[in-house]
Write a structure and sequence with these properties.
Strand content: 15-25%
Number of domains: 2
Cofactor: pyridoxal 5'-phosphate
Number of helices: 11
Protein name: Alanine racemase
Structural class: alpha/beta
Enzyme class: isomerase
Distance between the termini: 19 Å
Helix content: 25-40%
GO biological process, one term: D-alanine biosynthetic process
Bound molecules: pyridoxal-5'-phosphate
Family: Belongs to the alanine racemase family.
CATH superfamily of the largest domain: Alanine racemase
Number of strands: 16
Radius of gyration: 23 Å
Largest sheet: 8 strands, mixed
Shape: elongated
Order of helices and strands: EHEHHEHEHEHEHEHEHEEEEEEEHHE
Length: 356
């Protein structure tokens, strides 16, 4: 068997959910979109079933996968529906849905649900990706109410820069949100993603929406790392399956990415970009080999990558390589690839998933 294994520690997932829920201080949706950020949505939902207030996914397909697995919790469609036809399944499966645009609002008005929808009406408080602008929000609310198609309407917004806690933008978004929803009938509010939950106390509202922190990965910059006791859920590991000694001045792998600067013992590892390891990760990206830190050297191939074993004489064929997990954080690897931890997590594939 190819030795690439994503070990998923479900006890850590439960722990992180409880940390986030306690930090938020009220009900919190566990965000399971993109196959639970690569961790396996059904298994994660099942592991959280007795403690989670509900789940959130990106789209109907993801919600139906959870329903088919017997998950009866509230499930919010964070992007709502893409076409009116989907509203039948939303109704049938009692899903909650975001309404983020005029088009979606019209679909709701023209629908004929058995039971009024549970709608989360998105305010664009400054991110400018989706949602109703402040001047249009009240009208959208009134139309939903008048349609009789919405039972509960939760007021919702999303932060653009909550992961940069020193910036004033999140406070400004919150201020705009509060100013707009004032004057509407009381009801539930939901504004905070992981970063909002972890470092913006004023974002504590009726419903948190925790994504990345659930998986034990901080969305915050270095320095804020210890703010919450998050435990990595995924440990993504492979093994060394080839070793060679190269003289100084020899290239490794495709292109001219890396040339040895000393006599070098190179380990060949069964993991590549087809498995989700970022191809753009530069030489020097951290890896852990039999418990000791070393580095990626040379360009990442489709099925393999190469690491530096020179200073680890006791390592060799069969040595375990932690690509990310408990010592090497996925954020560190991502930083060496010009991305954020979310992306390599979502991309993990072809690995054997070992649920613990
Ligand atoms: C993905 C998403 C979240 C979760 O974000 P994290 O940064 O992963 O916590 C929350 N709200 C919305 C609307 C989202 O799309």
């Amino acid at each position: 068997m190819r030795p690439l294994i994503a070990t998923i520690r479900l006890d850590n997932l439960r722990h992180n959910y409880q940390v986030a829920r306690a930090a938020h201080g009220d009900r919190t949706l566990a965000v399971l979109k993109a196959n639970a950020y690569g961790h396996g949505a059904v298994r994660c939902a099942q592991a959280l079933a007795d403690i989670a207030d509900g789940f959130a996914v990106a789209c109907l397909e993801e919600a139906l996968e959870l329903r088919a697995a017997g998950i009866a919790h509230p499930i919010l469609l964070l992007e709502g529906v893409f076409e009116a036809e989907e509203l039948k399944a939303v109704d049938e499966h009692q899903l909650w849905l975001a309404v983020t645009s005029e088009e979606q609002l019209r679909m709701i008005e023209q629908s004929a649900p058995q039971k009024p929808f549970n709608v989360w009406l998105m305010l664009d408080s400054g991110m400018h990706r989706e949602g109703f602008l402040p001047e249009a929000y009240h009208a959208a609310w009134r139309r939903l109410e008048a349609s009789g198609k919405a039972g509960t309407i939760t007021k919702m917004t999303h932060f653009a820069r909550a992961d940069e806690p020193e910036l004033p933008m999140t406070a400004a978004q919150l201020e705009r949100f509060d100013a707009v929803v004032r004057g509407l009938p009381p009801g539930d509010e939901s504004v905070a993603n992981s970063a909002g939950i972890l470092c913006h106390p004023r974002a504590q509202r009726n419903w948190g929406r925790v994504g990345i922190a659930l998986y034990g990965v901080t969305p915050l910059p270095a320095g804020f790392e210890d703010a919450a006791d998050l435990r990595p859920v995924m440990r993504f590991c492979s093994r060394v399956f080839g070793v060679r000694e190269l003289a100084a001045g020899e290239p490794i792998g495709y292109g001219d990415n890396f040339v040895t600067d000393r006599p070098t013992r190179v380990g060949l590892v069964a993991c590549g970009y087809a498995d989700g390891y970022p191809r753009r990760a530069s030489s020097g990206s951290p890896v852990l080999i039999d418990g000791q830190r070393s580095r990626l050297i040379g360009r990442v191939s489709m099925d393999m990558l190469t690491v530096d074993l020179t200073d680890l004489p006791e390592t060799g064929i069969g040595s375990e390589v932690e690509l990310w997990g408990d010592v090497v954080s996925v954020n560190e690897v991502a930083a060496h690839a010009g991305t954020i931890g979310y992306e390599p997590l979502c991309n993990v594939k072809r690995a054997h998933f070992d649920y613990r």
